[in-house]
Design brief:
Elements (H helix, E strand, L loop, with lengths): L2 H13 L2 H36 L6 E6 L10 H7 L5 H8 L7 E11 L2 E3 L2 E3 L2 E5 L3 H4 L4 E4 L4 H5 L4 E4 L1 H8 L8 E4 L2 E9 L4 E2 L2 E2 L3 E5 H9 L6 E6 L5 H15 L10 E5 H44 L1 H9 L4 H42 L9 H27 L3 H6 L2
Parallel strand pairs: 5-12, 7-9
Antiparallel strand pairs: 1-13, 1-14, 2-5, 2-13, 3-4, 3-8, 6-9, 7-12, 8-9, 10-11
């Protein structure tokens, strides 16, 4: 029998039980919708994170003190916070072109958390102490006022640039420029207020107070070392050689001959992006696997309903076989019914998942203030349709086989 008549017969059979057919495909709809949502939201999250990380630029390196952790539960994670292996000596050595000619500029950074107050209002921001040009590296400029200068760094000036939320919490609608805030009983003059930025690579600048690195070291944290060196290379091409120069310089200063005993490590933007992409891809795959369980449940539901349908339509099967339908025709009819159910479910799941994804994108952009991009996961749609068709074939095969095995005479006698 040709395909078109089979499809027509199968569609007619499904149409006779509209409510049952609708409930049968519900599991497929939910499964495909979940896969579309998970993959599209995963893609949006990955793009958001990567855009934030890439805000530092492809020529940026970060030197971190302590041994490189092998994972988030590695005890050396704490060591990177407490290590004092990066000091003025290391800063001077890396600033020397003879040691690392590929370095364009190096900015030391310290950070911590402390309470800031102004006339009875308090807020607990992240304190960032940075060298001159720190905000330029992150491509952040004060909306009002100015950033601190090189002279401010050299003189340990008590000046601060505050983030958008810090300003809102401490000053409300009042002007914050030239006002004085207190951090650890030290008075700081506000010289700049950042525009609303949110998370930018390493830090949430909206909830930060940025001071000259020397001021933060001596007056706020009481340390003589640095938590990070942010390094900009001359170009992307020199990064591999620059990494080698930094390693050679620091190992020479620390008398390290075995690289496994390094008390520092270097992070490049390429490594960060690769790590984030790998993590988000694994999480997305895991969630898709979980969502796929509902497809399995939906497939079992289709098989169950098709078996019931075969029993209820025994006389119909007998009549068709009596007038010349072969076992192959009967099997094809019921198999087509299962496939049609799952393909309709797949299409509805894709449409519903895409619509919800679009709505979620609007909500996140409007209420969370994130630069979330809408993305239609074409591969997920193709996968959804392919999987739904496969589910129909696999779970429709047994009921179709059972229908084709019925004896015409016994089927006609069935009441």
């Amino acid at each position: 029998m040709k395909i078109f008549p089979l499809v027509k017969i199968a569609a007619k059979g499904l149409g006779a039980q509209k409510s049952r057919s609708a409930l049968t495909i519900l599991g497929i709809v939910i499964g495909i919708m979940a896969i579309i949502l998970v993959m599209s939201i995963g893609s949006g999250a990955q793009n958001l994170i990567l855009n934030e990380v890439q805000g530092l630029g492809s020529t940026t390196l970060i030197v971190v003190p302590g041994r490189e952790p092998k994972g988030p539960t590695d005890p050396t994670v704490v060591e990177t916070i407490l290590s004092d292996s990066l000091k003025d000596r290391e800063l001077r050595a890396l600033s020397d072109k003879a040691n690392a000619p590929g370095i364009e500029r190096i900015i030391p950074l310290v950070f911590g958390v402390a309470t800031a107050s102004y006339e009875g209002e308090t807020f607990r921001p992240t304190i960032l102490g940075g060298g001159f040009g720190l905000l330029d590296v992150f491509d952040i400029l004060p909306e009002t006022g100015r950033s601190f200068t090189e002279d401010d760094v050299k003189s340990n000036a008590n000046v601060a640039v505050i983030g958008f939320r810090v300003k809102e919490e401490l000053f409300g609608s009042s002007d914050a420029i030239d006002q004085r805030i207190k951090i650890k009983n030290k008075t700081f003059r506000v010289i700049g207020v950042l525009s609303e930025k949110g998370q930018a690579s390493l830090f949430n600048f909206d909830e930060s107070v940025i001071t000259p690195v020397s001021t933060a070291q001596y007056y706020l944290f009481g340390i003589k070392h640095y938590n990070r060196f942010i390094i900009q290379a001359v170009s992307e091409e020199v990064i591999p050689n620059t990494v080698k120069d930094i390693e050679a310089t620091l190992r020479g200063l620390h008398n390290i001959t075995d690289p496994d005993k390094d008390d520092f490590f270097i992070v490049t933007q390429a490594e960060i992006i690769a790590s984030i992409s790998k993590i988000t891809s694994i999480l997305t795959l895991l969630l898709v696997s979980v969502a796929a369980i509902s497809l399995l449940v939906g497939g079992i539901g289709i098989m169950n309903i098709m078996l019931v349908s075969v029993t209820e339509r025994t006389r119909e099967i007998g009549l068709r076989m009596a007038i010349g339908a072969t076992r192959g025709n009967i099997m094809s009819q019921f198999l087509f019914e299962a496939v049609i159910l799952t393909i309709i479910g797949g299409i509805l799941g894709i449409l519903l998942g895409t619509s919800l994804n679009f709505g979620i994108t609007i909500v996140i952009r409007k209420f969370a203030g994130l630069d979330w991009t809408y993305s239609f996961p074409l591969m997920a749609a193709i996968l959804g349709l392919s999987v739904s068709a496969a589910v129909g074939l696999i779970f429709g095969l047994y009921p179709a086989s059972q229908a084709s095995k019925k004896s015409p005479i016994e089927a006609l006698r069935y009441e």
